[in-house]
Design a protein that fits this description.
Radius of gyration: 18 Å
Number of helices: 5
Helix content: 55-70%
Distance between the termini: 49 Å
Strand content: under 5%
Structural class: mainly alpha
Order of helices and strands: HHHHH
Number of strands: 0
C-alpha cells in the first residue's frame, strides 16, 4: 500500500473516542495510584464505598457530580 492510500485509509476510518466514564475511571486510578492510595483508602477519605470506587475506575457507572466532588476532595484535587 502506498503512503497516500494509507493516509486516506486512516482518515476514512476515524477512531472513536473512549466513553467519558472510562476516561474518568482511568484518571481516578492514575491519581489514586500516584498518591499510593488503595481503593479502600480513597473510599474512606471520600466518604463513599470501596466497591463504588472500583466501579468508577472500571468505567462501569456514571457518577453524579456530588460523588465526583467527594472523589476530588479525597484525592486532594480542586473540584
Amino acid at each position: 500500500m502506498c503512503l497516500a492510500a494509507a493516509l486516506f485509509s486512516a482518515m476514512a476510518t476515524p477512531r472513536k473516542a473512549p466513553p467519558l466514564n472510562h476516561v474518568l475511571g482511568q484518571n481516578v486510578r492514575v491519581h489514586r495510584a500516584a498518591q499510593g492510595l488503595s481503593q479502600e483508602n480513597l473510599a474512606e477519605r471520600s466518604g463513599i464505598k470501596r466497591t463504588y470506587v472500583g466501579s468508577i475506575e472500571r468505567g462501569e457507572i456514571d457518577p453524579r457530580l456530588g460523588t465526583l466532588s467527594k472523589l476530588a476532595s479525597g484525592l486532594g484535587l480542586d473540584a
